[in-house]
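Record ATP-dependent RNA helicase CshA, 459 aa.
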Amino acid sequence: MGFEEATPIQMQAIPLGLNNKDIIGQAQTGTGKTAAFGIPLVEKINVHDSAVQAIVIAPTRELAIQVSEELYKIGYDKRTRVLPIYGGQDISRQIRALKKPPHIIVGTPGRLLDHIRRNTLRLDSVHTVVLDEADEMLNMGFIDDIEHILSNIPRERQTLLFSATMPGPIKSIAERFMKNPTHVRVKAKEVTVPNVQQYYLEVPEKQKFDVLTRLLDLQSPELAIVFGRTKRRVDELSEALNVRGYSAEGIHGDLSQAKRLSVLNKFKNGAIDVLVATDVAARGLDISGITHIYNFDVPQDPESYVHRIGRTGRAGKSGKAMTFITARERGILETIEHTTKRKMDRMRPPTLDEALVGKQKMTVEKICSVVETENLDQYKNFAAELLEKYDSVPLLAAAIKMLTKEPDTTPVKLTEEPPLPMKKEKSRNKRKLDLKNKRVGRKRSFHSARSTKGSASPK
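=>
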């Protein structure tokens, strides 16, 4: 499995899980929570029992696929059968797979409920249920579906609930469907992305795309993800990047599963260099070799930020994360820094000349690579003739010029996204201040009225 040392959430949750305790795990992405519930889950599976014994409910098909892959690895030696089921996949194919019941099912709420209603999924042998990223399922409107699913599972079960935050509806589910759960919590400072260099750039909305393309030219990422806030933003960004000569495609929730997998395979195989994604579509992405993250739109909350930048800096390799903010979004930046207990370094937006230098450096690297690895015998006679006519420096300069494509400044138009509002905590503080000012104002008016009344001239 490649585990070297247990993470804080694993050290707390695994012993409880093995002892059949209900658990509320408050932890963000990047804490190792899948193994925290996966190891005790697999340990409890009876592989000789041909029945569904555990259900993991995940908010998106992307996360369902990732979790099922990790559970498959954990249970490989034990020959544990794991099946992901989610919307966008042919349901008849899933029904055929369910006729030889897997030991563990990882599914999205809507598709799980669909199978329950069709009576194609039997839950009478389920002894363990996991709710993964429960707050995300709340945000996506799945709470009613989750309650319906839990109501169809035997009461004598172990329930594990993992959520970055604990809003009221999630607490309500815990109270209704869990038995004396033990609460384990991983603080934000324990969410580690130590191998990621983190920067922010303050850029006006209308200049963000030019800055992005200059960064791509300057930094020459091997594989990069650009995060946009909306589906429209992802579509427009991927199209605009292609207009300027970059190899990019986008993923978001409206894509079919076949199209999404096609895009991801292209990205993994290097057929495209830049993947543009929404937060929801990127949930569960596990692709090695991602070197750069560009938060074109500032993330909605600190948890989304941690999830985004956690796509890079993996397996001991370093990564870079650049976050674009407008002047009105400084408060969001401060909230992220406060939650993650880490300051981002400010980065100056590169100029067009700096972008050109970046492309020239990339050309030089390619030339050096060809010199070191390719057979150049058939070109040496021409090279010798040129060296008789010209000095080597202008010759190489001409080669670099010919091989370096000038930064593309083709005009593109993106629909402007409004800046994110301040966090709720700040809004509450502002309301308190406004209320205080009103009270002071009323007091002043009262004293002013008394003063006026007292000094009024007699008639």
